[in-house]
Amino acid sequence: MAVLLQVRDAHKRYGDQILLDGADAHITDDVKVGFVGRNGAGKSTLLRVLLGEEELDSGEVIQHPRLRVGYLRQHDPFVAGESALDFLMRDSNQPDWKCGEIAGQFELKGPYLEGPVKELSGGWQTRVKLAALLLHEPNLLLLDEPTNFLDVRTQILLEHFLRDFRQACLIVSHDRAFLKATCGQTLDLSRGKLTMYPGKIDDFLTYQEERREHDQRVNATVIAKQKQLKTFIDKNRANASTASQARSKAKQLERLQTTEIEVDLPTVTIRAPQVDPRQGPAVRTTDLAIGYPERTIASDIQLEIEHGERAAIVGDNGQGKTTLLRTLTGSLEPCDGHMKWGHHCDIGVYAQHVYTTLPQEKTVLEFLEYESTPGTTTQQILTVAGSLLFRDEHVQKKIKVLSGGERARLCLASLLLGTHNILVLDEPGNHLDVETVEALANALLAYKGTVIFTSHDRYFMKRIASCIIEVRDGTVKNYLGDYDAYLYAMNKEVDDGERERNAGKGGGGGKSGGSNGSRGGQRDQKKTRNEIKTLERKIASLDKQKKETNDELLTCTDPKKALELHNQLAEWNKESEALEERWLELNDGNW
């Protein structure tokens, strides 16, 4: 395995903020790495350094001579009037048939391939950019928040693409479900240090918490022992008969050291508005049509959302999810039909157009004072602001200098200061880090009001949604199933499309005829079934060993032994993952 990219003793700072402080990491040609860390930790800055767009203050980035980097561009690389096919040919210098073949992997065909690329939605434009990446044949992909604004279908297509991509990837994302599906290792950036964990995101988060608890337990034991030794030394060092024992204990005391546990970073705390639970319909539509004067998006909509429900609006990009939310909140007039909210409904809205049009010259505190309910004290405002990490001098920051994540948190803070019993949230997870999304999910689960929301974060949707409303092909209706059922249907549609495309590629070959072919097929099936059983036994055995080792690791007080156990656990995780992949491969081929 070759090291494609190495970061060595990297230092980088902006003013008083230290982003990299002696950071070290390397990426080999056979790994897909999920890159995580809090908003503002420096992940995007490091990506720009790796791309050569910024320089380190000190340290170095070492590249393999045959490194070919593919970077998913966030800006618009398209020329007015060109089609997706024109762009792919211009960008890659590849012939039209090759560009069309790669574009087909992302379902780019017909008007999506041959029509004006600038008229496509953001999700479809991302598909075009991904096809362009593949045409350059990179051996390392750098993806910065690739799932932002992508619908579920495109996310699944991207996962399939990355699963089949046999080269290395470094993926910055706050989407736990996406990272879990695509990345076998996790790179964490916190307090200026890079830490590579040889496992998936969920295992990393579990390990992180377990190590913190383990170190706290060990430190408690060490501190108790230190107190005991100090008491003995103080009592006996002046006594001639016990002075030598006291000196011996003093040497023991010098050797006893606690493990340094870094103080936890400030944690986001979100408390949803405190409202009384209500019953009956919150909103009802009759023969509703939504859209714009020149075009109707969906019609004949018969919906009823009950008080207390958490209604998830799902559907592909461009189908009308945001149009529906804007119509429900009154920022867009219905094209036809009727819509009625229940009595005493107080609606709070969180949407992209809200946090991108905030008053630039106001400070955080001034904005929250303006948005809060009359009678709210300054201390209450500061408490809510502090719970979303606007503390001390940060409340005096002007909105124009806030990052996307900070603006999103500021909008959340303004909602929390209200008394809304209806929350309408359009993509609330965009620009928020993992910890903030988790805090928001917990708050919405405890909220007694009604939530109507859309999100492309599958982890968030699965936790929150109590009912599903699908916007598709000009209709809006209740989906008869939970979010898992919806995801299953989306996966099946993508899989069916891939099978159809692969069948079209397959061509001749035919099936072997006669009894010999049949017997050969039976022998192959038996051999496969035997291999599957063997794999299942090995996986079960490894699971048992991993559990025993993990239990031992949690009670181990020797740092050297703990490191050995951790390395052993990482090895078994890697072996188990390979066995599971083979098991899935065999089952995919047989069932």
Automatic annotation (TrEMBL):
Entry annotated with the keyword 4Fe-4S: no
Comp. bias intervals (Basic and acidic residues): 521-531
Domain ABC transporter residues, every copy: 5-223, 283-498
Residue numbers spanned by region Disordered: 497-531
Gene3D superfamilies reported in the protein's UniProt record: P-loop containing nucleotide triphosphate hydrolases (3.40.50.300)
Gly residues bias spans: 504-520
GO molecular function: ATP binding; ATP hydrolysis activity; DNA binding
Protein name stated in the entry: Putative ABC transporter ATP-binding protein YheS
